[in-house]
Amino acid sequence: MVKVTNPAWAPDGGEVEVPIASLAPNVLCTRHNAALSGLDANAGRLFRALRATKESRAAGLHLFNGRDVERWLLKALCGLSAIRGDWTPPRVWLRILFGELVFPAPWGMYLGAVVGRVFPSANEHVHLSRISVNGALGGFRMELIGWDFYLLARELDDPHKLVAGAMRRPNCINVVAEPKSRDPSGRICFYWEDRWPGIGWDLR
User: Fold this and answer.
1) Which residue of 37, 138, 162, 176 lies most exposed, with the fewest beta carbons within 10 A?
2) C-alpha distances in Å from residue 15, one per residue of 9, 119, 129, 165
3) Each residue's pLDDT tens digit, 169-178
4) Per residue, what are the HEC states of the chain?
5) What is the pTM of this model?
6) Higher confidence at residue 89 or residue 19?
7) Which pLDDT does position 30 carry in this prediction?
8) Residues sharing a CB contact under 8 Å with residue 103, sequence separation 6 or more, in sequence order
9) How far is Cα 84 from Cα 24, in angstroms, rounded to an integer?
């Protein structure tokens, strides 16, 4: 199950639990869902890498296509929004989802990571929170086993206010398992159209 805070289809707000299968968009036909199955496989690999580096079980580099991670976050956002009610995603979202367009700045993925951040070792849940822009669905925050991912998908007056302390389209995160160690237990890196991973930020 996935915990969802203030979902689009619950106007009174609050927190509800939905099956993890709900992350598959019901607004798409079977053929189009199948065309995006690679995004789900990539997301599963990301989940395993995040868990492994935090548990020091897989030292080394874990490399991901950042644009594909963004598209999977958008797919999850569409799926959750379509659970109930007659909801249709904006056409521009569908064009981004199927790779026809890319997220314009400052839209896209943000990672809530700062140098020296400490992750709760026992945190294994997935928690989603809706981001509203003038009453409309504008994105969400996904807490994935202690990592905070944000997706902004609508024009915002001050996007950094909503994602304070987060990095847009991060390059590389070094996860250090031992507080006094200088050697990372693992690296989560994302490559983008305009750049490849750099040295990275240290998290503990």
Assistant:
1) 37
2) 12, 23, 9, 24
3) 988 887 766 6
4) CEEEECCCCCCCCCEEEECHHHHCCCCCCHHHHHHCHHHHHHHHHHHHHHHHHHCCCCCCEEEEEHHHHHHHHHHHHHHHHCCCCCCCCCHHHHHHHCCCCCCCCCCEEEECCCCCCCCCCCCCCEEEEEEEECCEEEEEEEEECCEEEEEECCCCCCHHHHCCCCEECCCEEEECCCCCCCCCCEEEEEEECCECCCCCEEEC
5) 0.79
6) 89
7) 60
8) 70, 96, 109, 153
9) 13
Q: Give the pLDDT score at 158.
A: 75
* Confidence at residue 127, expressed as pLDDT on a 0 to 100 scale: 79
When pLDDT is cut at 50, 70 and 90, the band that residue 203 belongs to is very low
The tokens for 46 are 């990301």
- Show the tokens assigned to 15: 């927190």
pLDDT at 196: 65
Asked if the model's pLDDT at residue 110 lies above 90, the reply is yes
